[in-house]
Amino acid sequence: MLSGSEIRKLIEEGALRISPFSPDLVRENGVDLRIGDEVAVLLNNPAPLDPEELDGADLGEYYKVLKLDSSFVLQPYMKILVSTLEYIRMPDDVAGLVELRSTFARLGLSIPPTVIDSGFEGQITLEVHGGAFPVVLKRGVRFAHIVFFRVEGEPVPYRGRYQGQRGVTLPR
After folding, report:
1. Phi and psi torsions of 103, nearest 5°
2. What is the pTM of this model?
3. Do residues 52 and 73 lie in contact, with contact meaning Cβ atoms separated by under 8 Å?
4. Backbone φ, ψ for residue 12 (5° rounding)
């Protein structure tokens, strides 16, 4: 796991790019990520969605994408996708793991572990699960935390279909 000083060094060298960047986002062993300006609410739809046939699917029947001008109330047990404010370009030899900041976890929220591959570039889309009571999510609030790891062996940089994504990106 990379220390805060090693992360700052990567940023100063231009190997790791974070935009918009604020030095106070770099923590002891990671970088805090803020809530961006889009939320996608996962709708209750009983029709099966085949992950191998997404090209022909009307995703509007499964997701409602909203602009987040200021805040959004995450209702109990609701599931949403949220984008980070930060656009990140990962070095080819560094990967990341995103987790929820502890304040939000202590409010009952959770996110599945999210791996950021080496070489990935874009805003990060996170799935968020609501807890037992409503919680207000505000644009620009430090919400998640990414820790970085060096890739051992010959790295294979990410070049997948989510490369360069901006805003909430639905499944492709």
Report:
1. -60, -45
2. 0.93
3. no
4. -60, -35
> What CATH number has the domain bearing residue 17?
2.70.40.10
DSSP three-state, residue 41: strand
Q: CA dihedral defined by 138, 117, 96, 64, rounded to 10 degrees?
A: 20
Q: Where are the beta strands (DSSP E) in the chain?
A: 17-19, 31-42, 63-67, 71-74, 79-89, 94-100, 114-116, 121-129, 135-138, 142-150
Q: What's the pLDDT tens digit per position in 49-96?
A: 999 988 888 999 999 999 998 999 999 999 999 999 999 999 999 999
Instruction: Print the domain residue range for 143.
Output: 4-45+60-150
Cβ atoms of 113 and 95 within 8 Å: the answer is no
Whether 111 is covered by a domain: the verdict is: yes
Active site residues: 127
